[in-house]
Amino acid sequence: MTLLTYQVFKTVADIGSFHKAADILGLTPSAISHTISAMENELGFSVLTRSKSGVTLTNYGEHLLPYVNAVLNSDESLQQAIAEFNGLKQGKVKIGVFSSVCTNWLPDILNSFVKLYPEIKIEVFQGTYDDVSYWLKNGVVDLGFLSVSSAKDIPIEPLYRDPLLCVLPKGMKKSGSSEYMEIEEMRNHQFVTQRECTDADIQNFLKENSLNIQSSYHVVDDLSTIALVASGFGICLMPELVMRDIPYDVDCYHVRPDACRIIGIATLNPEFMAPAVRTMYNHILKKYKRV
Question: How many whole angstroms separate alpha carbon 245 and alpha carbon 179?
Answer without folding.
Answer: 20
